[in-house]
């Protein structure tokens, strides 16, 4: 099947920097995606024990690195000294990056930042994210996301002018409204939807069109296979999140 020329080419976002082509969440993965490939970035952040924000997906280190335990139980200095994001696969140890370091190499990319932890009413994470975006002139190129409602609520109160994505609960409510054909007035500007729902296909062009009529941008994750990449393009998604940005560029651009 050839690329359809009559439909819009979506933007491509490198999931965790393009984890199918580089070490996930590494500074080199993000630099390569943003600068060499000129695609957008998707990343996740956790707080450290000493009040820094590091870029890492899982709550715990065990599954993908050479260390064990919760990310938030370690100070940045220890993570810098000991952590290997490649878990010994790369020829040299791959260190963890801070949010600031990734923003510094993001070029002109749009960046989706997923807040992975809720620190409660005294949380400092949301204010720190906002200040980092301002420092790197990213407030108009960022999407702040979280599966959790409280961090998004706090961030929206602090930075109402910055784009946010729907939380998990908000996405479910929106989908229910779509099924009932009820127009909502959501506090977010982006819907970020999984490619399948409980293993079943559910996405349609009508769903995407319905979201667009409400003024929402629609992202889809995580899309890796060429046939799926072509299929979501025909549905009109604005941004396609993928582990393989080079493959997506080949499908969409040639």
Description:
The chain is α/β, with parallel strands linked by helices. The protein contains nine helices and eleven strands. Strands 1, 2, 3, 4, 5, 6, 7, 10 and 11 form a nine-stranded mixed β-sheet that branches. Strands 8-9 form a two-stranded antiparallel ribbon. α8 links the parallel β10 and β11. α4 crosses α5 and α8 crosses α9. The longest helix is centred in the last third of the chain and has 13 residues. The chain is globular and about 50 Å long. The N terminus is likely disordered.
Largest sheet: 9 strands, mixed
Which class do the helix and strand fractions yield? alpha/beta
Beta-strand percentage? 15-25%
Number of E-type strands = 11
Distance between the termini: 13 Å
In sequence order, what are the helices and strands, one letter per element?
EHEEHHEHEHEHEEEHEHEH
Number of helices: 9
Shape: globular
Give the integer mean of the pLDDT values: 96
Helix content: 25-40%
Low-confidence stretches: 1-5
Radius of gyration: 18 Å
